[in-house]
Amino acid sequence: MVFESPEDAVARIDDPALALTPAHVLVLRNSGPVGAAMPEAGSLPIPAYLAAKGVRDMVRVSDARMSGTAYGTVVLHVSPEAAVGGPLALVRDGDEIELDAHAGRIELHVSDDELGRRRQAWRPPASPERGWRRLYALHVEQAHLGADLDFL
């Protein structure tokens, strides 16, 4: 299940109509350095209706970060981030994602042809028009480079 932003996740995560199960992978995108200044939003909550049934962990994948006091099976700092066309930009609801933590591997099981179609259709989110937010969006490096400004 893909959430477009932290706000989208807050609005929809507890909706029983999503029919989420513990086997679902929760994906949060557009929360990296360019998309949202990389908030501590990567530790998506377990949907309330699943938590009420005793579910305590689900796989979560995000280009955001999370607090050091959070817990669970979470892949963070996915880089390059979705807002610049990274791999999370191409994920769709229903896609199969395989995580092998021991091997340090995460794989999106979608054909190369389909990913090519998705990449051609992808459009970046609107960039801030001016001011510090625009400078930041234009000059912040990706998470694997430290999310620092490229001119520092």
Give a description of the structure.
The mean pLDDT is 95. A hairpin with a 4-residue loop joins β5 (96-100) and β6. The chain has helices at 6-12, 33-36, 48-51, 112-121, 131-139; strands spanning 2-3, 25-28, 59-62, 74-75, 96-100, 105-109. The chain is α/β, with parallel strands linked by helices and 152 residues long. It has one domain (2-145): Glucose Oxidase, domain 1, CATH 3.50.30.80.
In short:
By secondary structure, the protein is α/β, with parallel strands linked by helices. It is built from five helices and six strands. It has a single domain (2-145), classed as IlvD/EDD C-terminal domain-like (Glucose Oxidase, domain 1), CATH 3.50.30.80.
Looking at CATH, the homologous superfamily is IlvD/EDD C-terminal domain-like
**What would the average pLDDT be, to the nearest integer?**
95
Q: Based on DSSP secondary structure assignment, what is the total number of beta strands?
A: 6
What can be said about the biggest beta sheet?
4 strands, parallel
Question: In DSSP terms, counting alpha (H) and pi (I) runs of 4 or more, how many helices?
Answer: 5
Strand arrangement in the largest pleated sheet: 1-2-3-4
Distance, first to last CA: 37 Å
CATH T-level topology: Glucose Oxidase, domain 1
